[in-house]
Write a structure and sequence with these properties.
The complex is a heterodimer. Chain A is mostly helical. In chain A, about 70% of the residues lie in helices and about 0% in strands. Chain A starts with a helix and ends in a 19-residue tail after the last helix. By secondary structure, chain B is mainly α. The chains are: A mainly alpha, B mainly alpha.
């Protein structure tokens, strides 16, 4: 059970954060189809940052001496770097869709094409292969928080909660959850959030009341880019062993689906991402899921008896479920009214 | 989106071409700048490689490799040109696929999935039917049509959910892409018989279609040369050593066909009317739901045809364990269509241009320390620019109209900026109320 919760969170948390990134952009009136691309870019930046910093003595010594707080600091810095570069990358989208009133779908697609191309181009030159890994060690030995890092004995039993949330976890997961909560409050309980949302509903009205629609849309997309970049790095760190491959397996698009399924509302999005995280987790490790800890691997046994429920089926499942869920919810879903429409001051 | 009036057609057309050319030029410049930057920073790349890199990006298609002294040589390279035309074949068709959907107001990002389903059907038919069961041209045609049908059916799915359930076709397409990738892998994994076991080290690939299913001593085996492949039509004599075949000409025929369909037939008119405004089209008595599905089906059929032509060439192999990646040919249909401003005839040329970039990337990888992904960067820059090709076109119009009557420029700052004071406060309850009503 602990394993299931941990694995689900690993997938759900980046998804949640990136879906919130989508909300910030769309609530301000910009369709951010580029989430996938920004994630890819953020993952690359974060991994590259870690790789560079691993060369410095401070962090090398910290890794040798087991100063885990310093290493957690490195993790946070890498997240920050990914967020900053993600925000800068997303400026390409804001510039095209706010200043030039370009088609946002095409602009986003361009960024989705650009990110993997640019990342693979650079990765090939830096690492001479298609994967950029950490210079030494792996994500688990450098960044994972275990019982022993917290000073507990190797054999200590921390109880169910302790085992689930303090052993073999990443700080990044909790930071993301915290950010998610804070930003949801910002979006719904502050003046800034209200103004941002008004630009996605009726920009003309917002403008007539003195809100600078262009600025708000820039703000929305930039926050969106920062979150997506950070989410990309967190995804790479926690599920891909801190490696950048120019690919996040359609995670950014899945986040878009989660956003629509969650009806552009943070709480629903959190629920939806947990659901999708569960499916992703099942797909990735259905053979080793032991729900009640009695040594019976239900899904593994099922896959052995009925070959239909094998790896292929579970890999496909998140996407099929997305489609079905969208089919049921899209009639009711209510997108921000002005999303995707370039704001033109002269228009009525 | 793009307004077209009969009298302005010619000037509109020239401006579209000019905008595309400017996009291409900027794309190439950005690519060159990237090469210079990376060349200056990276320790394993020297100044000479920067020069080589830029020259290859711009003129890679006429490169003939390096001579004994290690200097790049240039000239007509029939192998490169032939391969360029061969790789253009599926690109033209996926480009047409995206263009048709665009014309009808849909964004077909599902071309990779449709392409994969077309691949699966084509290979299953070409390799599944015994080679001597029917004449080879008939088997070829069957496999080709199978690919088209599979693509069309797969394209229908986003169309159906868009028409009846109002799901954004972009999301539906992306989901069906990944589902298709998994289905194809599943199919070839489960059937096993199509995996290449004759040649060692090729088990992760499917047989080429030149392998025919033949009964040898009571056991079905695959024998090289017994299968089908697209007729060369003399093109191999023109471009010796390349993969080119008659499929390229079929692609051109398809482009002409799509052009006729979209501009000369009632169906094409209805499809475009739906794209322009779904609701007014329905008001005019056009069945909008049927047309949305039909348009996606046509788009899917074109992608499937591209896959069929690519794999029926007989000299291409399919890597079947594809569940983690989608074919780039499918995605590259988007830049092909955008660069051509969705004109079916122009798609032929932009398709050739894109495959030229592909060859250029290959040359870069073989001849310098750079790699082929730089061409993908160039393509993405071109797509980015085509997103606001309208702005470039407007810029061109303004330049050409300088001195003549000044065009009514878009009204800027017509609304006097209101003071952001007390009025902002009054706005808040209003929006909040709307929000609250939504939750209820």
């Amino acid at each position: 059970m602990s394993f299931l919760i941990q694995q689900t969170l690993l997938y759900a948390v980046p998804l949640m954060l990136v879906a919130l990134a989508g909300v910030f952009a769309e609530r301000s009136g910009i369709i951010n189809l580029a989430l996938e691309g920004i994630m890819i870019f953020g993952a690359f930046v974060g991994v590259f940052f870690v790789r560079l910093m691993q060369g410095t003595e401070v962090f090398l010594n910290a890794a040798q001496d087991g100063k885990w707080l310093t290493l957690q600091g490195l993790e946070l810095l890498a997240m920050l770097a990914a967020a900053v570069m993600g925000a800068i990358f997303s400026l390409l989208l804001s510039f095209a869709s706010v200043n030039l009133r370009a088609d946002q779908t095409i602009g986003g697609t361009a960024l989705n094409l650009m990110a993997p191309a640019l990342v693979l181009f650079l990765v090939r030159i830096i690492a001479n292969q298609n994967t950029l890994q950490m210079a030494t060690g792996d994500a688990a030995s450098w960044f994972m928080i275990k019982k022993t890092t917290l000073g507990f004995d190797r054999k200590a039993d921390l109880g169910f909660l302790g085992n689930t949330f303090l052993h073999k976890v990443y700080l990044a997961t909790y930071i993301c959850i915290l950010l998610f909560v804070i930003l949801s409050i910002v979006l719904y309980k502050t003046k800034f959030g209200l103004r941002l949302r008004s630009c996605g509903e009726n920009p003309q009205a917002a403008d007539s009341l003195g809100i600078n629609v262009y600025k708000m849309r820039y703000a929305g997309t930039t926050i969106s880019g920062a979150l997506a970049g950070m989410g990309g790095f967190v995804y790479a760190l926690t599920t891909a062993n801190c490696a950048a491959t120019g690919d996040v397996a359609g995670f950014g698009f899945l986040a878009l689906a989660v956003m629509i399924f969650g009806n552009w509302k943070p709480l629903n999005i959190a629920g939806a991402s947990l659901l999708f995280g569960l499916f992703k987790c099942i797909a990735a490790s259905y053979t080793s899921i032991d729900i009640n800890g009695d040594g019976v691997f239900l899904l593994k046994n099922l896959s052995e008896q009925v070959s239909f429920f094998g790896a292929h089926f579970y890999r496909m499942l998140p996407y099929i479920v997305t489609l079905i869920v969208l089919a049921f919810t899209s009639k009711k879903s209510r997108a921000p009214k002005a999303e995707g429409v370039p704001y033109d001051k002269g228009m009525r | 989106m793009r307004r077209k009036t009969g009298t302005l057609l010619e000037r509109e057309g020239t401006r579209t071409v000019a905008a595309s050319l400017i996009s291409i030029l900027i794309g190439l410049v950005v690519g060159s700048i990237l090469i210079v930057i990376v060349g200056l920073i990276s320790p394993n790349l020297g100044p000479s490689s920067i020069g080589d890199g830029i020259r290859l990006v711009l003129f890679g298609i006429v490169s003939t490799g390096r001579n004994a002294a290690g200097v790049l040589t240039w000239g007509f390279n029939p192998q490169n040109i032939g391969n360029m035309l061969f790789r253009a074949t599926p690109l033209i068709l996926t480009g047409l696929s995206v263009a048709v959907a665009f014309k009808t107001g849909l964004f077909n990002i599902g071309a990779p999935g449709q392409y994969l389903m077309g691949t699966m059907a084509t290979l299953a038919i070409a390799l599944g039917i015994p080679a001597n069961a029917m004449p080879k041209p008939l088997l070829w045609l069957l496999a080709f049509l199978g690919g088209i049908l599979a693509g069309a059916l797969w394209g229908c799915i986003p169309g159906i959910v868009k028409a009846f359930l109002n799901i954004n076709e972009v999301l539906a397409c992306i989901m069906t892409n990944w589902i298709a990738a998994n289905i194809v892998t599943w199919f070839f994994d489960a059937t096993k018989v199509f995996q290449n076991t004759v040649e060692n080290t090729k088990t992760s690939y499917i047989y080429k279609t030149t392998y025919g299913k033949t009964l040898v001593d009571g056991v079905w085996t695959y024998v090289e040369g017994n299968g089908v492949s697209t007729a060369k039509l003399g093109l191999d004599k023109l471009f010796p050593g390349s993969q080119v075949n008659g499929g390229f000409l079929i692609a051109i025929l398809f482009a002409v066909g799509v052009y006729i369909l979209m501009t000369k037939t009632t169906l094409g008119y209805q499809l475009k009317a739906c794209g322009a405004n779904r609701h007014s089209a329905r008001y005019a008595g056009i069945n909008d739901k049927r047309n949305i599905i039909l348009s996606m089906a046509i788009a899917g059929a074109l992608s499937g045809a591209g896959a069929a032509l690519y794999y029926l060439a007989g000299n291409t192999e399919f890597f079947w364990s594809t569940y983690q990646s989608l074919p780039a040919i499918g995605f590259n249909g988007i830049p092909v269509a955008l660069l051509a401003a969705n004109n079916p005839i122009a798609v032929v040329f932009t398709g050739i241009f894109m495959s030229m970039l592909n060859i250029v990337g290959q040359q870069l990888r073989n001849l310098t320390a750079y790699n082929e992904y730089i061409t993908d960067v160039i393509i993405s820059v071109i797509v980015y620019l085509s997103a606001f090709s309208l702005v470039i076109k407007m810029f061109l119009t303004r330049r050409s109209k300088k001195g003549k009557e000044t065009e009514p420029t878009p009204v800027k700052a017509a609304v006097p900026a209101a003071e952001p004071t007390a009025e902002t406060v009054t706005a808040e309850p209003e929006v909040e109320g709307e929000e609250g009503g939504d939750k209820a």
